[in-house]
């Protein structure tokens, strides 16, 4: 799993820091963005294998960005995140192509399980 690139798009500095540190200790390269605009640029420039994408961002809705990413030429695995644990949002995220949904705050064991399963299962890329 070394050298795999992960992009984190979340407006909360604490979440970006937590994910960056956790994933970095696991040996991944991590890019972080606090807005959709910044995240879209990093996505297009770096083509990450996995993206952690917040649903609610200051400059837009992560579900709309999920649709955009899944319609692009390069496909990444997407894990949606939200502090609002609504089943409708989870179902919509999965319907639009998210491979999993994490509720904030994270359970580290669950986070590790998601990362391991998504980066070891290459058949999930469309």
Automatic annotation (TrEMBL):
Pfam families attached to this UniProt entry: Response_reg
UniProt entry keywords in alphabetical sequence: Phosphoprotein
Modified-residue entries (4-aspartylphosphate), positions: 54
One record GO biological process: phosphorelay signal transduction system
CDD domains listed in its UniProt record: REC
Entries under Gene3D superfamilies matching the protein: 3.40.50.2300
Domain Response regulatory positions: 5-119
Keyword field contains rRNA-binding: no
Protein name: Two-component system OmpR family response regulator
């Amino acid at each position: 799993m070394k050298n795999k690139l992960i992009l984190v798009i979340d407006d909360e500095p604490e979440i970006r820091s937590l994910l960056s540190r956790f994933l970095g200790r696991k040996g991944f390269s991590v890019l972080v963005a606090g807005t959709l605009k910044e995240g879209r640029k990093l996505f297009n420039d770096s083509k990450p294998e996995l993206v952690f994408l917040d649903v609610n961002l200051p400059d837009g809705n992560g579900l709309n960005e999920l649709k955009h990413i899944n319609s692009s030429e390069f496909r990444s695995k997407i894990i949606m995140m939200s502090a609002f644990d609504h089943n409708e949002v989870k179902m919509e995220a999965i319907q639009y192509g998210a491979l999993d949904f994490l509720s904030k705050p994270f359970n580290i064991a669950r986070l590790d399980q998601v990362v391991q399963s998504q980066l070891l299962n290459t058949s999930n890329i469309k």
